[in-house]
What does this fold into?
Amino acid sequence: MLEVSTHNSSSPRFALSKCLFLVTCMLVGSSPPEDPIRCTASNNLSNCTITNAYGAFPDRSTCQAADVVYPTTEELVSIVALATKKKRKMKVATRFSHSIPKLVCPDGEQGLLISTKYLNHTLQINEASRTMKVESGVTLKQLIEEASKVGLALPYVPYWWGLTIGGIMGTGAHGSTLWGKGSSVHDYVVQLRIVTPAGHADGYAKVRTLDDHNQFQFNAAKVSLGVLGVISEVTLKLEPVFKRSITYLEKNDSDLAEQVNKFGKQHEFADLIWYPSQRKTIYRMDDRVPSDTPGNAWLDFPGFRSTSSAALAVLRLLEDADEATADADAKCISAKLTTSALKLLGYGFTNKGTGFTGFPIVGYHNRLQASGSCLDSPENALITACPWDNRIKSLFFHQTTFRIGLSKVNNFVRDVQKLVDLAPKSLCGIEMYNGILMRYVTSSSAYLGQEEDAVDFDITYYRSKNPLKPRLYEDILEEIEQLGVFKYGGLPHWGKNRNVAFHKAINKYEKAAEFIKVKEMYDPQGLFSSEWSDQVLGLKDGLMTFKEGCALEGLCICSRDSHCAPDKGYLCQQGKVYKDAKVCALATS
It folds into this structure.
């Protein structure tokens, strides 16, 4: 196994880490993220590049486009028509661009980017029918706030404010529940408006309004990957706002495999945070309570708060140093510090909006369901920022996220526990990013939605700025990825993941052929498609790229040592628990 250093919790390094973590959790006010689209022409609309909020796609390519447009609703149809007439490739970009894979990349330098930044208006709220119509660039924060003003709420949403409704529709983003209609936002959409390419007879652009009366097309557009056209308007079914009571319970993870299925059925908004190396799980007991239950709690999750740029730089330097010296003990100390501090801070909850005094937390749903205060700030000098802001030396990470059906999830948990038994410190690194978030996802009618009730495993971990540099316990993280995606048939989250997770994933979707039919109907020339999206949809080969070091970034599954880092001692080897896995392992481990 790896030879590691030991650190004492009273060391100066530990004290510095603790101080920095607490400082990052207390700061307010930041410079909001910049537009992910950058153009060099004098009009600021031409010679453009686009990236995501993290500053890098999984293959580290730079996506280029000739132009960008920022339409309003009235301009959108003519923009799509003109681009279609000229047979130009198009891609839709969102305000903050939080998708990790290359969903927003047009093919070639002559492509057109259509930003929904200014398609950000609430168009109609019908209190009688409890519906809300918004433009696709409306953020989750806007939707929650506008709905709450008239006493309405969308019951299940992602936990991050910065997503747009169009982005949520494109990637199938979700909250956590096994109750009711389920946790996916797209299953609460009752109507949508999408602008697609068309022929000369239709003026080169067609506006389609979809709902349950045309389910064949509607079920394709609910999770679109951005390849069908531009979603311009979305109408959601809401419900009266309500109160929730939340308690976090910490338990040993010895019975997690047995409890995971039961727990999701016991509590409406249940989720779990799993710290495998610490052998513990945080159970979120979260349910509706009567509206007269006392409490006016608020959520401001520490990981989504403004963070000192200087503190971020030091934290990243410490993490780089731990990786360079293979210091697993230091990572485990930092992990315990992080989890202890989050517990002390009540995971971002405040009982009366001013401080955390203990569980249960009681408050209105709209104040508890999501957060992202690092976005709420005026433009100023970049003194503080969102923790992942790529303009500064900030956190830089991969995210592996897949959904495993309830019938298989217990065995997956046991396999991960076996890996931890073999390498007890191997997952301290992900615990520095608050462990494995486990959310419940229900089956969906969307063709590229969830196939069966499942648990979503969201794993965040260190990524080097050098694509040829392996991370500490590279093999364990790769084996978990291959366990989830291949042995247990996990479906990928479309807005996250490295290329490995998408390898032949389309074959797991029973209605994939129907989605392709709608795609060909709406955009027969593939103007909203790219080489990457065609590879993901199984229409082209080449998703797996075999070259030196490709497995380190998830661009391939290694089949030879050169796909790893042989000069650093990492060779392509068999998995420890999943023997069909091929992973980059340190030769002495």
Q: What stands out?
A: The CA atoms of residues 229 and 374 lie 31 Å apart. The first strand starts at residue 37 and ends at 39. The radius of gyration is 23 Å.
